[in-house]
């Protein structure tokens, strides 16, 4: 019994390490600092928690702030916000748009993906639904390799910029880093199975309109 348990644990550790190696290897050379990232047409901001009052959590706000600075610096010409709006009362993309517009970002430069339920779905939908071929992915650094790897595997010429400012929230940051180990393994499974997103839907032109 002990031997079997140790074997299962060992296989789990090996699988987790393999997932991490895949994400790091695929993203290698494609992650940058905010100052050094090459220009791309679109910033793809991946969703994160929104509070009950509609305000973005510090993790999401930090991502949005980076996207705004990239837009203002001329590094991107449009922002695609991809997140969860599976319930009427919970709206990551809509709350993000309100946040950015309140800070001076023109609404005409923002496109919203309401069905980015996880990172894989966000990448697939950015390519297949919104027609994104090249993008700067914006998220936290612990998530960046996986996000860039998934988007690149799905056919987007993706680079990435990560945020470290919310490390001051030590427990949420630590928990997120731990969860990322399992998420790396799921990312590999998603790529192997090439599953469709939870919701695919019709083609959208909002990114092209934001770029025009």
TrEMBL record:
Pfam families: DUF218
DUF218 domain residues: 42-158
CDD domains, sorted: YdcF-like
Listed InterPro entries: Cell_Envelope_Assoc, DUF218
Name this protein carries in UniProt: YdcF family protein
Species name: Paractinoplanes bogorensis
């Amino acid at each position: 019994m002990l031997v079997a348990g140790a074997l299962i644990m060992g296989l789990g550790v090996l699988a987790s390490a393999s997932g991490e190696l895949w994400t790091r290897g695929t993203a290698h050379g494609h992650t940058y600092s905010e100052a050094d990232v090459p220009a791309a047409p679109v910033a793809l901001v991946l969703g994160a928690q929104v509070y009950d009052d509609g305000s973005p959590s510090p993790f999401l706000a930090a991502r949005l702030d980076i996207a705004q600075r990239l837009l203002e610096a001329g590094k991107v010409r449009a922002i695609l916000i991809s997140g969860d709006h599976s319930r009427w009362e919970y709206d990551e993309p809509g709350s993000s748009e309100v946040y950015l517009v309140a800070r001076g970002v023109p609404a005409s430069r923002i496109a919203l993906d309401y069905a980015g339920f996880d990172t894989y779905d966000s990448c697939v939908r950015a390519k297949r639904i919104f027609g994104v071929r090249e993008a700067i992915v914006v998220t936290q650094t612990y998530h960046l390799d996986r996000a860039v790897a998934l988007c690149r595997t799905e056919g987007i010429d993706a680079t990435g910029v990560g945020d470290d400012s919310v490390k001051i929230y030590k427990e949420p940051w630590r928990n997120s880093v731990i969860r990322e180990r399992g998420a790396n393994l799921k990312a590999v499974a998603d790529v192997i199975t090439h599953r469709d997103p939870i919701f695919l839907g019709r083609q959208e032109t909002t990114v092209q309109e934001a770029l025009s």
